[in-house]
Amino acid sequence: MKSRLPALALVAVMLTWASSFVIIRGIAPYVSPAAMASGRILVGAIVLGVVLAVRGGPMPRGLALWLTLAYGALWFGLYTVLVNAAEHHLDAGTTALLVNIAPIVVAVLAGLFLNEGFPPLLVVGIAVSFSGAAIIAFTGPGQRDRIGVLLAVAAALLYGVSVVAQKLVLRTTDPVTTTALGAIAGAVVLLPWAPRMAHELAEAPLSATVGIVYMGLVPTGLAFLLWAYALSHTPAGVTASSSYAVPALAILMSWIFLAEIPTPTALLGGILCLTGVAIARLNPTMFHRTPVNPEPAMTALPTPTRDR
Q1: 59, 187, 229, 258: which has the highest count of C-beta atoms within 10 A?
Q2: pLDDT (0 to 100) of residue 238
Q3: pLDDT tops 80 at residue 113
Q4: Is the dihedral of CA 56, 60, 65, 69 positive or negative?
């Protein structure tokens, strides 16, 4: 049973991350994007802060600390607001499909700033993914969809920038510490919207408050602890590929609980987005069983450790 725990942890993480897209969509009519993000990240920061205080461990210093605060503000702060705003225009499944182009963004930034280069498969993957995003943007019923696509793609861009920053921090700091400090930084950035969050929740149904608390406790708090555990006991390729399940689960949950599914063209575009990510992750050496002078394998795309 113990050997199955990392796999079960990954399943739980994917389910909770997918559920957050559905809950955001469900309570969007009652809570504005920044207010929703403020409540969610505040709850998550408290949970992760308590874990960090009990667990202890060395804190990042110097450049690592500044990078942690920066990606916390961008990832836990602005990214969350953008995803919430996107779901005012798009269904949960389409938003999840678009946000999952983030690994492409990570690979591009890694090529530019971490000297990981631009293998041909990465270039092909970029073209395929962004053609999928274009299909979603320009085949929808109206301007509202295009605004939602732009917001979701902007969220993916912030996701990518933050993952690269976190990758640098993780060279000297453990994942739980960097995640907890990032959540705290995000909560501080969103603190000005806390009064608005309290006012809107006071007038909203109880389900809105329950949804925000759930997202803070589970997809933002508990899921990160499970992710860190799975990451330390599972090969990186397995953890990376597991994120492909999130859009599919989000679409299924959205259909069950909200009676919403992406349009056929959105599904086509989303499939292209994920196909592009898969192409970019391919290792060229896998096609050559016995190379005479094997080149170093293409660096694997950094695995995001943030919920969608």
Answers
A1: 187
A2: 56
A3: no
A4: negative
